[in-house]
Design goal:
Helix content of chain B: over 70%
Largest sheet of chain A: 2 strands, antiparallel
Order of helices and strands of chain B: HHHHHHHHHHHHHHHHHHHH
Oligomer: heterodimer
Distance between the termini of chain A: 26 Å
Order of helices and strands of chain A: HHEEHHHHHHHHHHHHHHHHH
């Protein structure tokens, strides 16, 4: 029941605000309670012996045939992502002051949808909750966005709508293949992996996996299905950008890790799929990296960089071994926190400076040393400097991808891709450091005055930056949770 | 009491109300002699106001619905009716749909009353309720027709019931006799309706000529043991299905839909879009099922035929809807698109565990009913208060009436098929069924259509929440409509979140009991 409560709390809070409850207070309380509950669950889960199994299982049937139930359950993976969601939600809502009620409602709906997607164990509800979270994203961009908001809102709606339907098609195929004894069930825990000798033609299984890869991939802005992401994040209101880039986008990766890879393990390793994935992720890292260097505005830069960094996570998935998968999940968490922090800072700059163009900004650290410091931490995290969370994730991904190197056989495509991907670190250093320099250092821009936020508004910035540091120095905190659950999934 | 008595009772109620209406203001003369009691009765009946007629009709329908739901009207029918009239679960389900949609249509009509007065009366400023009596009575006859259609298993019964519905609609569509659009719609509906009836009768004649049977069971049996050329049965079957295709608005028999929907009075449009379609679907289901029984000579060609029509219907309906600027026309095309999904459900013979093809179609209609009616309810009230049917005129509705806008948004989201709304469950079942059937071309068309749907429904939602230019008036609903709207909105969410409810109604207790929680593993 506790997981049901965590999922429904933001939705109920949204309803309360719609009916007239004060926006900010209600939403911050709901998000705070959710964060505390998540921390409590993490402690409790550790106490269960940390064998990586699903805990807190509960559910009730909503349709008996075909069997669909509102079932929930959490293991280390879900809990880490739940922690990410609740952290970013609280930060986003805390920083939203004096906006229309619809801001709080939309943020809570996105948060509730993401929590539902991460905590449900029924494919129907996983899909439905993700979809529920997408809708407010579209509406907020269309109604309260910046720039060409209408056109961009349509683009993301149609892009992600199509992605979701491809995903739905893939999931239909998956349910058909994996249901025990052909008795259709949507219960993730009851579905059985398709192994060789199951009697299904290989091409059929592989086609299903590929459909899932494209469907989930579109949601994560896998190259070449990425072009919705950067404009959408640039146009989105700050809390929406934080929640979508930080949290919701991770759903596609979560789906691959939790659903597609364990249930179709052999298709995931098929050579042509591996190669296709490697080409696509190289597109993310190298092509999008170069595109990012070209950006002249902070919002465009952050949007594109978030597309680029997804490439590393995919590299971890392509490696497929324990190191790579652990790294991928750790990186998902770290990237979620760091990009949310960056979008939060970006929103503050937009409000005060009125522009995000590098040429018009400069020397802001003089008046706003605190913002400069936090931006610095987020920048270094984003580049992958040791001591910050992203580093731990990226290192594990690279090690995992390079692990099976054999001197006799030479480089495989995976290892070549890894070597090429390493250049991405250099690329991100180029654009992030340049952005940092242009905004916060150098000659002070005339006519632009940016001051540090109030003490109360510093809290979310401090919390997010602290999480980056703590996880960076002690990645074991999260890895201990992830590892056993991942092993269990891999052995399924 | 059995269901046929229930239907006859409703018909008699309609006639009585018509009589009462025609004796309005009647004064009983002193020298009536032996007729005095009757005369007095008519005088009393004549005192019922025109809106009173609607309330009596609503009450009657409500009582009928309760009788149906509680199973009080399930007494066995006389044997002489076997083969003509069946009371199975499907029939009961569709009878319920017919009653509910007539009920809601009457509530809509009450909201819409000022518009009827405006376009029926020669001097609308001086009258208040011209033409309303008939406007409230006719839906009862349509309801009777639809309820008989739900049970009809003989082509003659089908034809008679269908004509009762269609003829009543001829009048209803053209009801605003001083409005050119309504008259145009009436003429178009009359001509194309007559054409479809012609096709149907011709097909029926062929079927009878070929098989010597009028019952669907008999025809199905003959088709299963058919020896000889398939051309005759195929021609007959195609004609019958084409005639029914008009009723459910399937491509290529959908041409009448946009104009008729736009011109007809809004409650009548709603009735056409939900009630008439549901009745068309149940007849289509029964006829189609009897054609495609296993071993039937028509099985393969007819399924192929309907699959193609279903795919085309979805694509045409959705694509044409994109360009619409009039809300009613948009819903007209959307209704075509949804008809495509229903046909796809019927033609995907595999079904889904727990749902046969005809049950998926019935489920889909149950999801379609609340979301469509909410749109038309808002439109009726808006029209009565002077707003046009153009989408633009709803700009910024959210600021004036946040609850109304939110409910309308819910309905549109459900039409688009968003999760946790009824629309998603319906679409999901259809898509799964088509996928497991292997009808990939139709499936692809359905997916493309569903994506397109997102675009035009969301366009309306964005308009609702956009900043209004100038002063947009609020839309006020009377109390009955507000309650109805709340119930329909609740239905959208309940079906979306707890579809077991509909499965229970469809299949009864034994199939879909609420099962207790079974944890997968203990920790």
């Amino acid at each position: 029941m506790i997981l049901h409560f965590i999922i429904l709390l933001p939705l109920l809070a949204a309803l309360a605000i719609w009916l007239g409850a004060p926006g900010r207070i209600t939403s911050v309380i709901a998000a705070g309670v959710n964060l505390l509950l998540t921390l409590g669950l993490l402690v409790q889960y550790q106490g269960l012996g940390n064998n990586g199994e699903m805990a807190f299982i509960n559910g009730f049937t909503v349709l008996s045939e075909p069997h669909i139930q509102f079932a929930v359950g959490a293991d280390g993976i879900s809990l880490v992502l739940t922690l990410l969601t609740t952290l970013v939600t609280l930060a986003a809502l805390w920083s939203t002051v004096g906006k229309d009620r619809i801001y709080y409602i939309a943020s809570l709906l996105i948060s509730g949808g993401a929590l539902g997607a991460f905590l449900c164990t029924d494919l129907f509800f996983i899909y439905a909750f993700h979809e529920l979270a997408l809708i407010p994203t579209f509406l907020m961009i269309a109604l309260y966005g910046y720039g060409e908001r209408r056109a961009i809102a349509w683009k993301i709606t149609i892009y992600l709508g199509a992605g979701s339907l491809i995903l739905l098609a893939g999931l239909s195929g998956l349910v058909w293949l994996c249901s025990p004894d052909h008795k259709i069930t949507f219960d993730l825990l009851a579905l059985e992996p398709v192994k060789a000798g199951s009697g299904y033609p290989t091409w059929w299984v592989e086609a299903t996996y590929f459909t899932l890869l494209i469907g989930f991939g579109t949601l994560v802005s896998l190259f070449p299905f990425h072009s919705w992401a950067a404009p959408a994040y640039a146009a989105a209101p700050t809390p929406v950008a934080m929640l979508h880039a930080g949290v919701l986008k991770k759903f596609g990766l979560y789906g691959l890790i939790r659903i597609a890879m364990p249930l179709l393990p052999e298709a995931a390793q098929a050579q042509w799929i591996q190669h296709a994935l490697l080409y696509m992720l190289l597109g993310n890292i190298l092509v999008m990296g170069l595109v990012t260097i070209q950006q002249r505005r902070l919002d465009g830069l952050l949007g594109n960089s978030s597309v680029m960094h997804m490439g590393y996570v995919f590299l971890g998935l392509a490696a497929g071994n324990s190191l790579g998968m652990n790294g991928a999940l750790l990186l998902m968490f770290a990237h979620g926190i760091s990009i949310a922090l960056l979008f939060l800072l970006c929103g503050k700059l937009r409000n005060q400076a009125g522009t995000l163009e590098f040429d018009k900004l400069g020397g802001l650290a003089g008046n706003a040393p605190f913002l400069g410091l936090v931006f610095g931490i987020a920048t270094f995290a984003s580049i992958g400097l040791p001591g910050l969370a992203n580093f731990a994730g990226e290192v594990l991904v690279f090690l995992g991808a390079f692990k099976d190197f054999d001197v006799k056989t030479g480089f495989t495509f995976l290892q070549i891709a890894t070597i090429l991907s390493l250049w991405g670190v250099v690329i991100s250093a180029v654009y992030m450091l340049r952005a940092y320099r242009k905004i916060f250092f150098g000659k002070a821009a005339s006519g632009i005055f940016v001051s540090d936020p109030s003490i109360s508004q510093r809290i979310p910035l401090i919390v997010l930056a602290a999480v980056l540091l703590v996880v960076g120095c002690q990645p074991g905190l999260l890895l201990s949770l992830l590892e056993s659950s991942l092993n269990l999934l891999a052995g399924k | 009491m059995n269901t046929l008595t229930l239907e006859l009772g409703l018909g008699v109620l309609g006639l009585l109300l018509l009589v009462a209406e025609s004796f309005r203001g009647f004064k009983c003369p002193k020298d009536a002699g032996p007729l005095l009691p009757l005369c007095k009765l008519l005088e009393v009946a004549g005192r019922i106001s025109k809106k009173g007629i609607a309330y009596v009709a609503i009450l009657g329908l409500f009582v009928a619905l309760i009788l149906l739901v509680t199973g009080l009207c399930k007494c066995p029918l006389p044997d002489s009716l076997a083969g003509f009239y069946a009371v199975d679960r499907l029939a009961l389900f569709y009878k319920g749909l017919a009653l509910i949609s007539t009920l809601v249509v009457l509530i809509l009509s009450l909201e819409y009353a000022p518009v009827v007065n405006q376009f029926v009366s020669a001097k609308p400023e001086q009258t208040k309720d011209a033409g309303l009596g008939e406007f409230f009575c006719l839906p009862l006859f349509v309801c009777v027709g639809m309820m008989v259609m739900a049970s009809a298993i003989d082509i003659i019964t089908i034809f008679v019931a269908l004509e009762l519905v269609t003829v009543s609609f001829y009048t209803l569509v053209a009801f605003l006799r001083r409005n050119a659009l309504s008259l145009e719609a009436g003429v178009k509906y009359l001509i194309l309706g007559a054409l479809s009836t012609g096709l149907l009768v011709y097909g029926i004649a062929w079927l009878y000529g070929l098989t010597g049977e009028t019952t669907l069971v008999g025809i199905s049996a003959k088709l299963q043991s058919w020896e000889g050329s398939v051309a005759g049965p195929l021609f007959a079957g195609a004609l019958v299905l084409a005639g029914l295709g008009f009723k459910v608005a399937a491509v290529p028999f959908q041409i009448w839909v946009p104009d008729v929907y736009q011109g007809a009075p809004t409650p009548v449009t709603a009735f056409l879009s939900v009630g008439s379609k549901a009745a068309g679907v149940v007849v289509f289901t029964r006829v189609f099922e009897s054609f495609v029984a296993p071993n039937s000579v028509l099985q393969a060609p007819i399924i192929q035929f309907i699959l193609i029509l279903a795919g085309l219907t979805i694509v045409v309906g959705n694509f044409a809807a994109v360009a619409q600027t009039n809300f009613k026309r948009l819903l007209a095309y959307s209704s075509i698109a949804h008809a495509g999904f229903i046909l796809l459900a019927l033609a995907s013979r595999h079904g889904v565990v727990g749902f046969s093809p005809s049950e998926i179609a019935a489920f889909y209609l149950a999801t379609y009913l609340p979301m469509t009616f909410i749109c038309f309810l808002v439109m009726s009230a808006a029209r009565a208060q002077g707003l046009s049917d153009d989408i633009v005129s709803y700009t910024g509705l959210a600021r004036r009436c946040p609850v109304l806008a939110a409910i309308l948004m819910l309905a549109l989201a459900a039409l688009a098929g968003l999760p946790f709304t009824a629309g998603f469950m319906g679409k999901m079942l259809v898509i799964y069924s088509a996928a497991y059937d292997g009808s990939y071309l139709a499936l692809a068309m359905a997916v493309v259509g569903a994506v397109t749907g997102f675009y035009y429904y969301f366009k309306v939602i964005l308009v609702l929440y956009a900043k209004p230019e100038g002063d947009t008036p609020a839309i006020k609903l009377n109390r009955l409509s507000r309650v109805t709207m709340g119930v329909l909105a609740l239905a959208i969410i309940v079906i979306g979140v707890y579809p077991n409810a509909v499965q229970y109604v469809l299949k009864g207790k034994d199939k879909a009991a609420i099962t207790a929680v079974t944890p997968h593993a203990q920790h």
